[in-house]
Amino acid sequence: MESSRVTRRSFLGASGAVLAASALPRGAFSPLQPGAEADCIAISSANGIGAVATARAAVMERKLRPVSAAVLGVAEVEADPNDTSVGYGGLPNEDGIVQLDAACMDGPRHNAGAVASLEGYMHPAQVAERVMDRTDHVLLVGPGAKRFAHEQGFREENLLTEASHKAWREWQATRKEDDRLWPLNGADPDAPWTLGETRPWGTIHCSVLAPNGDLGCCTTTSGLAWKIPGRVGDSPLIGCGLYCDNGVGSAGATGRGEAAILTGGSWLVVERMRAGDDPVEACLHALRRVAEQTLRASSWQPALWAKDKPAFGLTFYAVRKDGLYGSATMVGRRGSGKFAVANARGARLEESAILYELPA
Ligand code: ASP
């Protein structure tokens, strides 16, 4: 089997990560343990420390459903011009146009909405929520998504900030003739890459567990910087950049979207939790699957695999229905990978487990 080519050494990081993961703090609320204090838990990528606080408050104080709380939480990141990976100020595509992807998923009704390659609207997650609530469809793309956003009363605006435009012009000036096969993102500073360039990535995923055990989630992004116009990442694809099942848990991904798509990553994380994994184990399991499949893919795209591991970043986030939560990232130095969490103890960053831990 191809997967046996993943060397033993390459997976030593995995066992280390499991050990590190067991030391992670766990959520306090468990519907399975009578008497445990009901709590709302919101988790997100590290850029969402404000988002998780907002999402939790929306559930606890405004009684919003978890999916709407997640959409509300990420709105402040979508509107932040300094986060160049999401919404307003997001880095544009090859043509200098900002195209946004987003999706949300509602556990209790098992429904989802998504938009992809949406231009001119700052809050694609809110448009995705309307797709979920006001249509029988799941995903609208490009001009159709834009028309729908307009019909729904969202305000069209210019999303390209001066800073993002400047970054795009600099990229244009140094652009290689044919760079479409090498979208590496610099996960491992020691990797001996000689091909391609580094491209910024970023996204926010947010999963919310309400005190009654209901779940919801949302992922929103401007996607890979300088992408081919029309390129859709994992973020708006149900099962890839996010997934939730109200009987099990909720999960999402940030990082190389193509890898999360090719593995069905977020769906896999939820299914592993269904099978009994805790959230960190489930995230690590999905990362191992990505690694095995990436090794296979590297037979034609060698730059995807360097120094016995995938040469890109990918992080999963998960919360289980019983209140356990966690995250794991593909590669990094101890302490470098973080995720945001808010519960009764406040909003803070915690450490993601690492599949391939780099020496300090
Ligand atoms: N996953 C996103 C995408 O592929 C980007 C990211 O999370 O950095 O579009």
What does this structure look like?
The chain is α+β, with helices and mostly antiparallel strands. It is built from nine helices and 15 strands. Helix 1 (8-22) packs antiparallel against helix 9 and helix 8 (265-274) packs across helix 9 (279-297). Aspartic acid binds at residues 85, 201-203, 221, 223-224, 233-235, 241, 254-255, 257.
Catalogue the unreliable spans.
Answer: 1-35, 186-197
- Helix and strand sequence: HEHHEEHEHHEEEEHHHEEEEEEE
Shape call: globular
Spatial order of the strands in the main sheet? 4-3-2-6-5-1-13-14
Mean pLDDT: 86
Beta percentage is 15-25%
Classify the helix fraction into a percent range.
25-40%
Give the count of helical stretches.
9
> Structural class of the secondary elements?
alpha+beta
Q: Radius of gyration in whole Å, from Cα? A: 19 Å
N- to C-terminal distance: 33 Å
User: How many beta-strand segments?
Assistant: 15
Bound molecules: aspartic acid
Largest sheet: 8 strands, mixed
